[in-house]
Amino acid sequence: MAEAEEQETGSLEESTDESEEEESEEEPKLKYERLSNGVTEILQKDAASCMTVHDKFLALGTHYGKVYLLDVQGNITQKFDVSPVKINQVSLDESGEHMGVCAEDGKVQVFGLYSGEEFHETFDCPIKIIAVHPHFVRSSCKQFVTGGKKLLLFERSWMSRWKSSVLHEGEGNIRSVKWRGHLIAWANNMGVKIFDITSKQRITNVPRDDISLRPDMYPCSLCWKDNVTLIIGWGTSVKICSVKERHASEMRDLPSRYVEIVSQFETEFYISGLAPLCDQLVVLSYVKEVSEKTEREYCARPRLDIIQPLSETCEEISSDALTVRGFQENECRDYHLEYSEGESLFYIVSPRDVVVAKERDQDDHIDWLLEKKKYEEALMAAEISQKNIKRHKILDIGLAYINHLVARGEYDIAARKCQKILGKNAALWEYEVYKFKEIGQLKAISPYLPRGDPVLKPLIYEMILHEFLESDYEGFATLIREWPGDLYNNSVIVQAVRDHLKKDSQNRTLLKTLAELYTYDKNYGNALEIYLTLRHKDVFQLIHKHNLFSSIKDKIVLLMDFDSEKAVDMLLDNEDKISIKKVVEELEDRPELQHVYLHKLFKRDHHKGQRYHEKQISLYAEFDRPNLLPFLRDSIHCPLEKALEICQQRNFVEETVYLLSRMGNSRSALKMIMEELHDVDKAIEFAKEQDDAELWEDLILYSIDKPPFITGLLNNIGTHVDPILLIHRIKEGMEIPNLRDSLVKILQDYNLQILLREGCKKILVADSLSLLKKMHRTQMKGILVDEENICESCLSPILPSDAAKPFSMVVFHCRHMFHKECLPVPSMTSPAQFCNICSAKHRGPGSAILEMKK
Fold first, then answer.
1. Nearest-CA neighbor of 154 among 129, 183, 128, 132?
2. CA dist 479 to 215, 418, 458, 498, Å?
3. pLDDT of 708
């Protein structure tokens, strides 16, 4: 009955712990599992009293005096019957080849697991602790210590005999010992001591804080973090001690080393065991709680905490309550914490249970994230650590994530994640598409479907297009525009669109989409017809891209109506495909469009459309008068008489004036300017352009009785006609506006002309003198004559082969050379000689002469 109640209580506490963990959002640092197999079998008949851990195996001591060697899975590999009573401690050296055991009846054994050497001794008092030298395997380190009422050091002498020496006594039972390197730490009723085995000196004493606790019920926990750092846990107090070398100047009679407490703090519960974890501590705590109903203390589940030590306090990193078997009956002394340094494994030992705690790996982290439904983080963690995870696959996590998003109704996010998670797996893509179809969310996944690598079955794409066609024309058009035409059966979709157009024949979206489908299907004629009907901007691109000029010869008016500028540019750029004649004929009934085409043609080339220049005169006059005059000026092919007739009919004065002047009738043109336009400035400008004295005379005669015209002439005539001619003809008494200013301007212009002439004369004289001096210097220079020069007349060498003979030669400044006898004899009328080659007119560089004689 008691056992059943115990199981019930245990399961209740376990479920409570699980519920607490579910509510917590903080991920645990460690994971736990029971050490089973042989351990389960042992603890059903016996109870664990102590355990020590090696990297390769475990050694478990029991209350019935047995020591079992176990592998890391808990399987029994060896069994030793040491004593009929409780094993107090088991110790191993670092090599794992030697083991020391002590029992409650005073028995001590130290023996080799793989050799015959051993030590047996039975003392007259219980031996609580034993520790073999870490390097016991070495012949120089055959040492171990035992502790009961006193701490004894056993050493093997050179004759293979064991001798003992007392390291400490008189302060109660020795209950804990840890040997690391050359340092031995032990705890008795008064505190903790450290002994240096090398110098044979005790270097410190750390007193116990809470002397009210019974040392046998709340034993001290010791743990070496490294060769010089000792961690002490006793009651609720933790101390971290550092062994340091003493400076030579401070030695005197003191030990060479001393201990400094670098951190000291209190914990909430009683400490049953300690172990290091990097720069943190793992603490096994014995917990007592008060029942709310009975107000009595009871043993609660032990706790395993990871804490971060600080100088005077600590920070809790994680805390887990452990459901070990029989925890309700255990005391603080019944729990032990052992650890394996190499693998960060922690063993929680109690009389009826051994629990292994280990650091959580990436698989455990992902498990926790999935349990908390943090799929995004789980997927990210799996991708980062994909080489290290063993139990999880990125694809499985991703699929679970998609299912989770779908279950929550986040369809768009789920569809977006498909791209990354499904990758190039076509089968999975198709499976997910059908899942989205079942929940009516095909639209959500459509933007993310693969379109190249991989390509899904055409049915998948057609299914989504039909879904859009039934409910969203714009979305359907977008997919047709974005998806390549080879993803689906084009004819099936074309037929579906045509069926919908029967219900809504003027739907522009459907018509445009149908045109695009026709384009994919290379049915360009139908596509072009729809584009023109819709007046769609892509019509020109379609024509260019697929060379549809033969299809638009009868659709030129439609193109011009849609966008005349683009249409004209396209037609002119492709004259070889659609001739100018054909375009003009097609536009015959639309003269305004005909004018636009011919005008742009004329701008490009003044001669290409010369046969239509006569026609263009009427078109310009009708639709574009501002460009008529530039056309008349630039065209050399339009008939002037026809142009003059049209301009006179329409009373286009400026154009008529231009045509009259171009036909040589300047006087009529000037008369028209003065009589029709009454613009003296234009008349003066016209007279200047023609530069005809008779025109100036006509202009003066017409203006002589018009004061404003006279003012204009006075202001502008000075540089072309003598102003006196105009001034003499002005009638006396005629009032002329701004006459004084005009006369002043005439005088200023005259003075300016005089100044300009004088300035030009000075410049001319200076340039002439400079050039004359330059010519003189040039002609004064010598000219080289050598054997390579020839006579330009007889073409023989200019110098004789015999230099001793006399010779005579003539060298001109043009550098042509002649024998004197080869030149013609100068006449009496013109005694000067000239180069026959350069100076036939007796001037130029050949007119100067240089005569040489020898």
1. 132
2. 81, 18, 14, 17
3. 65
Res 28 pLDDT > 90: no
Quick one: tokens of 334? 């019944």
Q: How large a percentage of the chain has pLDDT more than 70?
A: 87
Burial of 4: CB neighbours in 10 Å, binned 0-12, 13-18, 19+: exposed
d(CA 320, CA 323): 10
Q: What is the DSSP string of 727-764?
A: HHHSPTT---TTHHHHHHHHHHHHHHHHHHHHHHHHHH
CB 160 within 8 A of CB 147: no
Would you tell me the crossing angle of helices 564-573 and 539-546 to the nearest 10 degrees?
10
DSSP 644-667: HHHHHHTT-HHHHHHHHHHTT-HH
User: Residue 514 and residue 62: Cα distance in Å, rounded?
Assistant: 88
Amino acid at 408: R
Element (H, E) at 687: helix 680-690
CB 224 within 8 A of CB 180: yes
CA dist 17 and 301 (Å) reads: 10
**Two tokens at 369?**
């994230």
What is the rounded distance in angstroms from the CA atom of residue 190 to the CA atom of residue 208? Answer: 6
Burial of 390 (0-12, 13-18, 19+ CB in 10 A): exposed
CB 279 within 8 A of CB 255: no
- Which SS3 state, helix, strand or coil, does residue 102 take? strand
The answer to whether 850 touches 812, Cβ cutoff 8 Å, is yes
Give the list of residues 6+ apart from residue 851 with CB closer than 8 angstroms, or none. 808, 809, 810, 811, 820
- Cβ(319)–Cβ(303) under 8 Å? yes
Cβ neighbours of 481 (radius 10 Å): 10
Contact indicator for 555, 532 with CB cutoff of 8 Å: yes
Write the pLDDT tens digit of every residue in 120-156. Answer: 888 888 999 999 999 988 878 889 999 988 999 999 8
Please count the CA atoms within 13 angstroms of the CA of 717 that sit on its side-chain side.
Answer: 25
pLDDT, residue 145, reads 95
Within 8 A by CB and 6+ apart from 392, the residues are 363, 366, 367, 382
Give the pLDDT score at 602. 85
Instruction: Return the C-alpha torsion angle 845, 849, 850, 854, nearest 10.
Output: 140
Amino acid 431 reads Y
Structure tokens at 580: 């100018």
Residues 6+ apart with CB under 8 A from 697: none
Residue 302 tokens, joined: 């032990």
Given the structure tokens 């080393």, which residue do they identify? 257
Digit-coded pLDDT (tens) for 56-108 = 899 999 999 999 999 999 999 999 999 999 999 999 999 999 999 999 999 99
Cα 378 from Cα 365, distance rounded (Å): 8
Domains and CATH numbers, the chain: 361-456 (1.25.40)
Instruction: Enumerate helices (H) and strands (E) in the chain, giving the number of each.
Output: 28, 33
Residue 381 one-letter amino acid: A
Please state whether beta strands 849-853 and 808-812 pair in parallel, antiparallel, or not at all (unpaired): antiparallel
Q: What is the mean pLDDT of residues 257-275?
A: 92
